[in-house]
Target: ERCC4 domain-containing protein
Amino acid sequence: MNEQIKRELAFHSRLKKQRKARVIEIDTHEDLDRLTELLLTGMGYTVVRRLLPLGDYQWGSPLGQVIVERKTPADARDVERLSKQVVRLRDASSHGGCFPILLIDHREEYNTGRYTPKYQPWSDSDFDNVLLSIGGRVRIAHCQQGQLAHRLDSLYRWSMKSSHGLLDTEV
Model:
């Protein structure tokens, strides 16, 4: 029995070595996201923090370099900055080699009022208006509050698929 356990452990060790490393780069400006980094590491990702020229998260995939720009409600209210970032994502997409995604983060944000904090979530119409306004070459995804690491994991796995039927038939 002891010999069988050793063989099985050796097999699993070889299997782990054969797996391709899953690397997600996080922009150093995403300093409030240590929890997301910790969760991604726990999910088996190698997280590299560096100054990214575009986006908040990046990884290589069969679609090209996936560039994820994360936006909270406060970010979207800064229309001028959001507009510039979307233009940069579109430009990167038009030159090929990358797959930009705007990730709408439904994270709760609070304004510290004088007496009580005021919660300012996305309203349905605000969310729909952002979707309507951006579109084009930039793909849009969203995640629920507290689910950023899981959503990045889902986007990573989705981007690694060998075929994307609806993308392939896009007009």
